[in-house]
Specification:
This protein has about 300 residues and is mainly α. The protein has two domains: about 100 residues, DNA polymerase, domain 1; about 170 residues, hpI Integrase, Chain A (Orthogonal Bundle). Strands 1-2 form a two-stranded antiparallel ribbon. Helix 1 runs antiparallel to helix 2, helix 2 crosses helix 5 and helix 6 packs antiparallel against helix 7. The model has no long low-confidence stretch (mean pLDDT about 85).
Length: about 300
Amino acid sequence: MEALLNQKINDWLETLKKIRGLSENTLISYKNDFDKFICFLNQHLSSEVTVQELKKLSKSDFRSFLSDQRNKNINSTSIARVISSLKSFFNFLLDEGEIEDSVIFTIKTPKLKKSLPRPINSELAIQTINNAVEIEKIKWVGLRNKSILLLLYGCGLRISEALNLNYSDLSDQEHLVIKGKGNKERIVPIMNYIKKNIDLYVENCPKQFEPNDPLFVGKRFGRLSPRIIQYALEKIRQNLSLPETATPHALRHSFATHLLESGGDLRTIQELLGHSSLSTTQKYTKVETGRLYEAYTKAHPLAKK
């Protein structure tokens, strides 16, 4: 790859991190998307891709790339993200004065079906969390995984937020200060049961923790990768015969849904989840429509007429 183009890609990613506060996982996804695009162009153009070559790309070049992605059975959600990544990079080149315009801005993003969260019922959620210890041969690893799943279901954390915690973040006994998307901080209460489980993990972990050390570590004591927890949940799914929809994110969805079922108000749930917009949180009201309608028809006087 041309040195100038490589530098521009790195500068773009650094800008996304500093200005937009994107997480490391999102930045990796953007980089992977762009790498696929460059790899395609190398073959499509039969030459090394340069910033100058990017200026000359036609609409048919972009369409050929998207067609190539569809032929590889890449789903619409991933293609939409790829288009978003490309538009972001070309916008960056525009701001840098490297290009004056690009046909990428005329490419439409595929329409996506709005998928509603699929929560796990409370009994199954607790069973899933407890099974995290039972399936692991190494005790502290099982306790670690259980603690992480408890933070997803019991505190509504994103997997990235849980894994970004440091040991010093446990200094307060009653709450956690979480840095979420866009570096926005929120205070999340932590139940005594969850805190005790984390303390038990720390006691059993062979690592001696310093304040700035990552709280959740792998076997080499580096910060844990999300993939490790995803794999642990895959094993739990197989062990308990759970559907593939039982994911780390489903536990966070379940946190919100079960709070709503128990009478929690939407604004409070919004704050706990770290949603910047109430409309994002309102997805959970749609999940509960059937239950609410049933309660309404049973309780309202007019429903009996």
